[in-house]
Each structure stands twice: as C-alpha cells, then as structure tokens.
UniProtKB/TrEMBL annotation:
Catalytic-site annotation from UniProt: 8 (nucleophile)
Cofactor: Mg(2+)
Keyword Metal-binding: yes
UniProt lineage: Bacteria, Pseudomonadati, Pseudomonadota, Alphaproteobacteria, Rhodobacterales
Protein name: Phosphoglycolate phosphatase
Family per similarity comment: Belongs to the HAD-like hydrolase superfamily. CbbY/CbbZ/Gph/YieH family.
Length: 223
C-alpha cells in the first residue's frame, strides 16, 4: 500500500494570520484607511489573496476600481515579509518527520499564490518534507474546485490518500474530490466541526500520524 497526504498551508501547517494582517494593514495605510483587527482579517483567510483583498476593501471603504492596485500593494509588502511573524503550529515538524519516515509522500495544496507559499515553507524549514506544492495560481481554478487537489495527488501517486486542512473550503474541496478529509480543529475554521464532512479530526499534530495510519489503513482495506 502506497500512501500520500496533502496539506493546506494557512491555518493548517502554519499560523500565518499575523503576517497577512501586517500586509493588509500596510495596504490600508497606503490608502489612508484605518487598520482592521487581526480577528477580522483572519476571518477573511481561505479563498486566496484576491478574495481577501476584496473583503478588506469592502470593510475599509476602498472603491472596487482600486482592486488591482490594492492587491499589488498588499503583495509587495507580503512578498518582502512572508514569514516575519508566522510559525508552524506546535508539533508540525515532528509530525511531518514521522509521516515521511513511515514512507508517506507529502504535498501542499493552498489557495495562496505559489511563490509566497514556497517562501514561507523555505523560511520555516518545512520545504524539505514536500514533493509538490500547488498554489492558488498553479491552475486556472482554485479550491474548492477539486482540480488543484487532484493535481497534487497526481504528482504524488499513492493508492491511499488523505487531505488535511482547517477550513470550510478545505472540507468542500476534499468532498468534491472524493478524498478523505482530516480536519485540524485549531485553525481558521468558522463553521462548527459537526457541520463539516470529515473522515477524522485532530486538535494537535502529535496525534495525526496515528490517526492517519488508522484511517488510511481502513480505507485501503476496503478497496
């Protein structure tokens, strides 16, 4: 049995909200607008930077016509400061090491543009674990369209597959892709856990290797 796990990035592997908030704050400052709270900006994370910027603009009273300029200004700051404040969630590195040692092939599928995703993974010394990184601009579509997740798994192979994420977008993506979904409950999710379709949940990365082994073994045995 060959196994593969693909992870979401923001709110799953990495708590990146503070750096995203800093970039948003800089963009708002350049437009002469007051900052939004960290909690408010965090609530916008999950559907990629363009969608986040649109939501910030709506809250901040920035005209729709300035969308491209707003994205450019935010990304200019974010590209220079992708991981100043971001950190892997506790236990992520040990978890990835254990999964890799168990022979599980690993990848990332995120709605973040691929370039900053790679910057963050490199800065936090996580890139060594992943064979493929699919970003929100890798394909013409992004999650919850299942195509990016399928693209990641096609690169990894594996007869037993699992997707690990933290959000409603991730849950919908896994469901549409017909892939078992492992929900990390400490990320940026807003919907109650029992309202999402999951194969399993975990609140600490130290627990994921055993959970994944159990779920993926059962899945492989049922094929």
């Amino acid at each position: 049995m060959s196994r593969a796990i693909v992870f979401d990035l923001d709110g799953t592997l990495v708590d990146s909200a503070a750096d995203i908030h800093a970039a948003v704050t800089q963009m708002l400052t350049e437009f002469g607008k007051p900052p939004l709270t960290l909690a408010r900006v965090t609530s916008f994370i999950g559907n990629g930077i363009p969608n986040l910027v649109r939501l910030v603009m709506r809250d901040g009273g920035i005209p729709e016509a300035d969308e491209n300029l707003a994205i450019t200004r935010m990304m200019a700051y974010y590209a220079a400061h992708p991981a100043d404040l971001s950190q892997p969630y506790p236990g992520v590195t040990d978890c990835l090491t254990r999964l890799q040692e168990a022979g599980i092939r690993l990848g990332v599928c995120t709605n973040k543009f691929r370039a900053p995703a790679l910057q963050i993974l490199e800065a936090l010394d996580l890139m060594q674990y992943f064979e493929v990184v699919v970003g929100g601009d890798t394909l013409p579509v992004r999650k919850p369209d299942p195509a990016p997740l399928h693209h990641a798994f096609e690169a990894l192979g594996g007869t037993s597959r699992m997707y690990a994420g933290d959000s409603e977008v991730d849950a919908e993506t896994a469901q549409r892709a017909s892939i078992d979904f492992a929900l990390f409950t400490q990320g940026y999710r807003k919907t109650p856990v029992d309202q999402l379709v999951t194969a399993c949940t975990f609140d600490a990365f130290r627990n994921l290797p055993a959970i994944a082994d159990r779920v993926m073994t059962v899945k492989a045995g049922s094929v």
